[in-house]
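Our working data are protein records whose layout never changes between entries. The record below serves as our worked example for the rest of this section:
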Amino acid sequence: MCKAVIPAAGLGTRFLPSTKAIPKEMLPVVDKPAIQYVVEEAERAGIHDILMVTGRNKAALEDHFDRHWELEQALERKGDQLRLRRVQKSANLGNVHFIRQGEPLGLGHAVLCARTHVGDSPFAVLLGDDLIDEADPLLETMIQTQQQYGGSVIALMEVPEDQIHLYGCAAVSSLDGADKNGADENVVRVDSLVEKPAIGEAPSNLALIGRYVLAPEIFDVLEHTGPGRGGEIQLTDALLEMARDPQQPGGGVTGVVFAGRRYDTGDRLDYLKAMVRLGVRHRDFGSDFRAWLMSWIDSEEGRGRPAGGQSGDGEQLGH
């Protein structure tokens, strides 16, 4: 696996007004932007050529993965080697390239924009809203699965039945016969896919999370995939076509059912949960933060809203 694609053209409307002038991918998760976690994940999996598909007002992404000479020189003069290394790290994460999507036509179209850069080899797609814990090698497992079975591989995760309508959903079956070939029980055959099924109509509780390893033939399918749910070109629809016809070139879709730690930064509440879960494990202040959090939960403020919680402009704090 030599290349990865990171779609990053979304407007981040769920986080307005924070994302009015700042790309949602640059919102901090503890002490670095969410997008850096994703690029670091690709690096750990041995992928050093990364293409970000961006849109308007995303220049901050390019700046973050570039050198900042003035800041580096200032830190060098101060002798602050720790912060200097942190600043330089993002610029040393492989070869990060950028291309604009042009029109917001959906995830499938964003992936299609990467065709010239990717070429004719399998490639990974990582969505920036889903962060996978560095101790859980999901992408590495998916790459190995694609090398063993060919076709495309998607990451699946069990979610509560009352939440499956928020995701793409997969109908799966066990690998059998020669196909199984000693496969892990968490590797399954994908028989069908549906994007955000209506409540009560989902074929399973297995949700697609934001990791894919795709056969290059997906581009040919995306070329003739029309708008689907939401009027957008859905990657799920193209994968459905490949799952239905495993005999076509690059056909067949395999799923890896993931039971590790995933942090959803695309929802405000889940974003806060991700901050806490990663914060209590931080090497510099995690233990102190955990101790404070435990004491705060038992405090009057932690048990309920304190009186007089008004912000300076008259709005309630937290709204």
Q: What stands out?
A: The first helix runs from residue 34 to 44.
